[in-house]
Specification:
Oligomer: single chain
Number of domains: 3
Structural class: alpha/beta
Strand content: 15-25%
CATH architecture of the largest domain: 2-Layer Sandwich
Shape: globular
Helix content: 25-40%
Radius of gyration: 22 Å
Mean pLDDT: 92
Length: 478
């Protein structure tokens, strides 16, 4: 294991390839000193780490969060980061609960916007930014409806802005190594891919609502954004599920992920990470058919477990199947079959991961990001490392300018030109790839997908899940 870490550390240190493209100079500054003015929508939780990724190099001029307590905490934590880094005292960002008001008052002062809200508000916030001509970095998944993904992609193209999705594995070395190994025949012919996650780690499956008083610090109407107005609620959970749920029993903060209208289940949470390397290795292909089985679902809630099979057309590799497993069944992890070359203890410890199975070996990664892939049998991995050192296995993939920092990479390319690793031309189709699994789960049947028509062709009912049913007036960007 130490050898593995040493090898990956050395290979990650190779100089990044510079993306082509003109410098983009804003407000007359040169690229050496350029500090962007950025706004963060969804300032706490994941938004806090997204802020941390750029706050020392750029100016955070606005923070937005519908929870006043979390908004103030985000501002304090940002100040602490600067103090602990011995950095210059940062400017004081303006604080907002409604991102629409922020754009009304500050659009002229902002270069780019980071969106780290729950899934159902990604499209709305990003589209407002795009309509104002702002560069955008949006957390994964870009949207929780395929129709919104397509609209967002086209709007960004028309606006000619720099875009990024926050799937950090796309910036890492490991994903690129796995692709280079496969393309240069290290494991023979690629014949199957198996993916899995331990998510959901929040309440999921059929859940009833229990009406309670809304916390005073939360603007629930703003949190709902374009979703139909309804009273604040918590989950009516059985005793065992309530005991496992370590967070607030309401949808606010984290537990929204299991609700179709707000999140996109285990698949939406982790698919843009775990499926990322697969999508890249297969040449960014979209599946022709998806089979699905799952635990019970409702019109409101995603299932506690699911199994999917993506049928991929031939492209760089022969036609093959990509399987996905998530959740638990009867208290046991719902994982795919272990490849016999992978040690049983190693596989058991991997709560999330991926197997790229070839005719002459398997590439295994026991985390969500394809950060440190290993080849089995290990004798083959040893030979591959020697072949890389000798130049027999080439580095053909462009490396990230800022590994493990998608927000920093995005800001870097706004200033210096070129495209981030997970720009919308890449991440919009990736998100569609992921969401097609949810389409099959919600349909509770196999779906055949026509990507050009954006339509399920073997049944009509699943097509109702392609676009969001409705938007409340005043929320869609005009």
């Amino acid at each position: 294991m130490n050898t593995r870490r040493h090898f990956l550390t050395r290979t990650a240190g190779l100089a990044a390839t510079t993306f082509a493209g003109p410098n983009l100079l804003l407000r007359g500054q040169d690229t050496a000193s350029k500090r962007l003015n950025l706004a963060v929508i969804g300032a706490n939780g994941k938004g806090q780490s997204d802020t941390q990724a750029v706050t020392l190099a750029h100016n955070i001029v606005a923070l937005v969060d519908v929870d006043s307590n979390r908004l103030e905490e985000a501002a304090r934590r940002r100040e602490k980061i600067h103090a602990e880094s011995n950095a210059a005292t940062p400017n004081v960002p303006k604080l907002y609960q409604d991102f629409r008001k922020m754009f009304d008052e500050m659009a002229g002062e902002i270069d780019g916007v980071i969106v780290s809200t729950p899934d159902h508000t990604h499209y709305l916030a990003a589209m407002h930014a795009i309509k104002h001509g702002k560069h955008v970095c949006v957390q994964k998944p870009l949207c929780n409806y395929i129709g919104e993904v397509r609209e967002l992609h086209q709007a960004a193209k028309n606006a000619k802005i720099i875009t990024q999705m926050g799937n950090q594995g796309r910036t890492m070395e490991g994903q690129r190594l796995a692709k280079e190994w496969i393309e240069q025949g290290v494991i023979g012919t690629l014949k199957e891919i198996r993916l899995w996650t331990n998510r959901p780690v929040w309440p999921q499956g059929p859940i009833k609502k229990k009406l309670v008083e809304c916390p005073a610090n939360l603007d629930w109407d703003l949190w709902l954004s374009s979703e139909p107005s309804e009273p604040y609620f918590e989950f009516d959970l059985d005793e065992a599920t309530a005991k496992k749920n370590k967070r607030s029993p309401g949808p606010h903060n984290f537990n929204w992920r299991g609700w179709w209208q707000f999140g996109s289940g285990a698949l939406g949470d982790m698919g843009c990470h775990i499926m990322d390397a697969t999508f890249s290795i297969l040449g960014q292909l979209i599946p022709e058919k998806i089979d699905a089985e799952s635990g019970p679902i409702t019109d409101l809630n995603a299932p506690a477990w699911s199994r999917l099979v993506y049928h991929m057309p031939a492209g760089k590799h022969p036609a093959l199947k990509v399987s996905w497993h998530d959740g638990e069944i009867d208290g046991q992890p719902n994982k795919p079959e272990r490849h016999p070359d992978i040690p049983e203890d190693t596989f058991k410890k991997a709560s999330s991961g991926m197997m790229f199975i070839g005719t002459d070996g398997v590439i295994f990664e026991g985390d969500a990001y394809c950060k440190s892939p290993v080849i089995y049998p290990l004798e083959k991995f040893t030979q591959v490392r020697l072949d890389m050192q000798a130049g027999k296995i080439k580095k053909t993939e462009t490396r990230s300018a800022m590994p493990d920092n998608p927000q920093g990479e995005w800001a870097h390319h706004i200033v210096n030109g070129g495209l981030p690793s997970s720009n919308f031309d890449y991440s919009c189709p990736l998100t569609e790839f992921v969401l097609l699994g949810n389409l099959a789960i919600r349909a509770q049947q196999t779906v055949q997908w026509d990507k050009d028509a954006m339509k399920v062709t073997n049944a009509e009912a699943p097509n109702q899940f392609i676009t969001r049913p409705s938007y409340r007036p005043g929320w869609k960007a005009s």
